[in-house]
Write a structure and sequence with these properties.
Helices cover about 20% and strands about 20% of the residues. Strands 1-2-3-5-4 form a five-stranded antiparallel beta sheet, covered by helices on one side. A hairpin with a 3-residue loop joins strand 1 and strand 2. It has a single domain, classed as HIT family, subunit A. The chain is α+β, with helices and mostly antiparallel strands. It binds guanosine-5'-monophosphate (5GP). Guanosine-5'-monophosphate binds next to strand 2. Guanosine-5'-monophosphate (5GP) binds next to strand 2.
């Protein structure tokens, strides 16, 4: 499976501003934040896109959202609100092919997305 920049962050080969880590997940600040809070929450398992999620990953993906929810609370944006985004493939603008959940908050977001 192709190695990505996020694999290197998981292996601590390149630095990142890590806000959470356990055996299965890593969360770190986006290098080009689009909001006052912009965290990437990733499973350490290399899953390139949402299209590659398998049945056996169902619990992992559920826990990915639990990590995001807990981080939103810890970072003080649970009540004000936040947006969770997963881009899949080119039309969505996916740039890194290691599944990641964007946790965005600290400002208002428009809907629908542009
Ligand atoms: P995507 O477009 O794939 O959903 O989002 C990839 C995100 O990863 C982008 O928001 C981009 O700013 C972020 N990113 C890319 N390379 C790095 C990096 O080396 N470190 C960090 N912290 N974020 C990165």
């Amino acid at each position: 499976m192709a190695d990505t920049i996020f694999s290197k962050i998981i292996r601590k080969e390149i630095p990142a501003d890590i806000v959470y880590e356990d055996d299965e997940f890593l969360a770190f600040r986006d290098i080009a934040p689009q909001a006052p809070v912009h965290i990437l929450v990733i499973p350490k398992k290399e899953i390139p896109t949402v299209n590659d999620i398998e049945e056996e990953d169902a619990n992992l993906i559920g826990r990915l959202f639990l990590v995001a929810k807990q981080l939103a609370s810890k970072l003080g944006i649970s009540e004000s609100g936040y947006r969770l985004v997963i881009n899949c493939n080119k039309d969505a603008g996916q740039a890194v092919y290691h599944l990641h959940l964007h946790l965005l908050g600290g400002r208002k977001f428009s809907w629908p997305p542009g």
